[in-house]
Amino acid sequence: MFRFSLFGIPVEVQPFFWVIAALLGGAAGADSRAAFFAVALFMMAAFVSILIHELGHALTGRKLGGGRAVILLTSMGGLAINQGGQFTRHQRFWMIAAGPGAGFAFLLAILVALSLMFNSVDVIAFTGRELFQLDLPFRTTELIDFLRAKPFIYILLTNLIWINFWWGIINLLPVMPLDGGQITEIYVRPPSRVYFIGMIAATAMALFGFLMMGSIYIALLFGYFAWKNWQGMKAVGG
Q: Contacts for 181-184 with beta carbons within 8 Å, 24 or more apart?
C-alpha cells in the first residue's frame, strides 16, 4: 500500500491500481526492455491523470461542502470521498464535474505548453492525429523531429493526451457509478430511471468497445456496469 498526502488530502494507492494500469498499458504483451519501459510510462501517465481528476473532486468538495477529503486509487480507477461534507444539489454537481474538469484543464495546459514551445498549428495537427486519427497538415517539422528524437517523451505525452481526453469523455457517460451517472442522479427522477439510462448506455458502450474497438477490457468493464445498473434498478423497484 502506497500512502502520501497532497494539499492536506490523504492519498492511498492500492496495489491492484498498478496491476490494472500495467495491463492497460500492454504489460501482457511486452517482450522487450523498451516495451516494458513504455508500460511504465503509461502507468505514470495514468497515475498522474487519475490523481489530478480525483484532486478536482476532493479540493472542490472540501471548498464547497467541507468535511475531510480522502483519495483512493483502486483497481477500478479512483475515488474521492468528502467525509462529513454537506452539499446542496448544485454544490454536488460542481464537486462531481470538477473531476473531469480538472483532467480537461490539465490537457489544455499540456497543449498550451506545447504551443509555447512549437508552432500551434503543428500542435493542433499532432493532437488531431493522436486523438482522432486525422491527417492534418503540419506547418513545420520541429515538433515531429523533437518527438522522434525523444521517443519516451512521445510515449508519455501521447498517453497523457489520450487519457485526459478519452477517459474524461467516457467518464461523463450517464452510467452509474461514473461521474456522468452521478450527475444524472442529481437531476433525473425517479432513481429507477437513472439506473435504466445507465444500463442502456453501459450496454451500448460494452458492444461498441467489443465490436468497434476490439477491446475486451471495455466490453467487460461496461458489461459489469450494465449489470450493476440493472441490479440498482431492481433494488429501487424499477
A: 181/229, 182/96, 183/93, 183/96, 183/97
